[in-house]
Amino acid sequence: MSAQTSTINNVATRPQGSLRRYLIPTAAEMLISALWMAGVGRYFLDHGRHAVLLFLAASCLLLPRVVVLGLRLARPSSERSPALWIYLLGLYLPEHLTGSAKIVMPHLLPLVLAIICLLAQILHDHLHKTLIPYARHLHPAAWLAGIVTVYCLVVTALAIAKLHAFGYVGQDIGYFMQCLYTGLHGRLFSSNQYHDLLYTRTVSSDFASHNQPALFFLLPIYWLYPHAETLFVVRNICLALSAYPAYQLARYRLAPLPSALVTMSFLCAPAILFQNFYDYAPLSMVGPPLLFSLLFFYRRQYVPYLASLLLCLFVREDLVLLVFGMGVIAMLGRRERKWFVPPFAIGIVWTLFTWTILLPHFQQGAVSAVESCFSYLGASPGEMLRTMFLHPQMILTHKAIVYLKQMFSPFGLVLPFFSPVSVVSLPFILINLAGDPGCNAAIIFRHYSLIPFILLLPGTVFAVRWIGMRPSFRSLSQSLLAFTLLLASAGTTLLSFGDAELSWWNTAAWQTEARRVIETLPVTAAIAVPRYMLPLAANRDQVYQTLRLLDYHHPSAEFVVVDRDPRRMGVTSEWQNHYDELLTQLQDSTRFTAIYSSDNYTVYRLIGAPLASMRLEGAGK
Q: Which residues contact residue 563 at a Cβ distance below 8 angstroms, ignoring those fewer than 6 apart?
């Protein structure tokens, strides 16, 4: 019998399912390679930057692999593992195929990551054998602790540098600073900056918008050092401490090294990393209790699990969705009743307390402008759901698709769904998508992304373990898979950066003048300032946004700071008319006098009749 005949007979006798499991990955790799080369060809024809270099790099990387795959199709085998670096390229195909020829990063960065992944896969066996004698001395957890410490210090330094460069929008930071300031002076988290602006009538407490008792935890810390830096340090420490339960959650299924790599990929993802130097919200503190609740759930440690859920509720009221979701997971998993009956009871009580007692009490009949985020979908929850079902294009915009891509790419798109807990993230993601047209909720950098992203972690851990244990993927160890996830996470974060993000740390001469202007204003006076100045001016009873001063119910500012640069002021067509009217009224010498003027700023002082609101009756945005 000839060798060719023997091969044919061997192929014929193999189980069809085994060959199918081999052919599908092979076909997928060939399709990814073909599409990537097609994208490189388009980029070359469009005369993109470094097009020749990219074409040669892609050709040298992909064409040999296509030849190998073609030869393997002639002699199928179920014992060959897929090339992870090909799938890493496939992860970034949308960016590569749709990216502009003027921007090189979506085309270059995936190739660099793929080369690193290829080298890791080639050297994996050699490194594994070399490191075995030193395995007892590696201590991945200790290395991870050191890396997380450096991570926390670096991102906190970046957050503070961004503050000093006025890189934040500033209004949310100023809001929570003023809430804590008034909380320390006898008023329950009051901030006229929002409470006199974003409601159909003036309210007096943050509890009119959210049930977040976590603010009480911040009070003594803010008392020690009442500055924006305090909020950043506390937030970033909480995010860094999230590494411990994340690592322990990974260790529930993985060895120490892949657990450390998965934790690093978690911290480097844009939904986590950018929390460290984006505008502030107490919701960012939910990381440790949420991750501990997942850890205790899988370890079946009931009392710590329940305590962690309660801590999540104290961070913000919408975490009640988590409580209900985990109860459903426990019930479907046929756990004992204590795993879902008490959580359901707690969720119902917290829901009734929040939406029928607490919020109505502090709102006093006012309606928050936040509710307008979803008003375009309908007047009632049922109508909103019906609109989303019949007209999904209203929420599945290009921006929403980019958001979903950035959310799932660090975990390989599909890996999170290896755990049913990932389903609990879907209501949070849906709320973010539905609220985006009105409130810009579908931005991966914002605190809204933190909860759903954390809920994607358990499935990813389970997927790494499952794939690493498959006989057909025997060369794909847990460590190699976890390292690939780290590359995917870093790549997604780097591709999320643009010119706008890089400008957060730009310094200019006007910034020194801005600080000097704030220092000249009386600390007890009611002032109106540009939004980016609010973190320097919020520790007072009354502070306003200059841009929207005439939209307040009671625009009682004694001093008004005007930035002569409309871009820094954030002037848009939506606020242009009222802002122009404000500038006109400030020129009235019987009511205002200019006490400071330069090429950048003018500061006015009220000497006559105060400003009157121009807002429509009951309006709030």
A: 530, 546, 569, 600, 601
**Confidence class for position 43, pLDDT limits 50, 70, 90:** confident
The residue type found at 373 is C
Phi, psi of 324 (to 5 degrees): -65, -45
Query: Once rounded to an integer, what is the mean pLDDT over residues 470-484?
Result: 79
pLDDT in tens, 91-134: 998 988 887 767 778 888 999 999 999 888 888 766 665 555 55
Structure confidence at residue 61 (pLDDT): 87
Interatomic CA distance for residues 621 and 619, integer angstroms: 7
What pLDDT, on the 0 to 100 scale, is given for residue 164? 93
Give the DSSP per-residue string, 403-454: HHHHHHGGGTTTGGGGSTHHHHHHHHHHHHHHHHHHH----TTSGGGHHHHH
pTM of the model as a whole: 0.90
Question: What residues pair up with 528 in beta bridges, in sequence order?
Answer: 544, 560
Which structure tokens are listed for 480?
Answer: 């190699």
Burial zone of 604 (CB within 10 Å; 0-12 exposed, 13-18 middle, 19+ buried): buried
Contact 468, 476 (CB under 8 A): yes
CA 548, CA 541: separation in Å to the nearest integer? 18
Bridge partners of residue 604, in order along the sequence: 560, 594
Which string of b and e fits 582-598 if b means at least 16 CB within 10 Å? beebbeeeeebeeebee
Gap between the Cα atoms of 585 and 183, Å rounded: 34
Q: Which two tokens stand for residue 139?
A: 């201590």
Buried b or exposed e, range 607-621, using 16+ CB within 10 angstroms: eeeebeebbeeeebe
In the block, residue with structure tokens 């958001």: 403
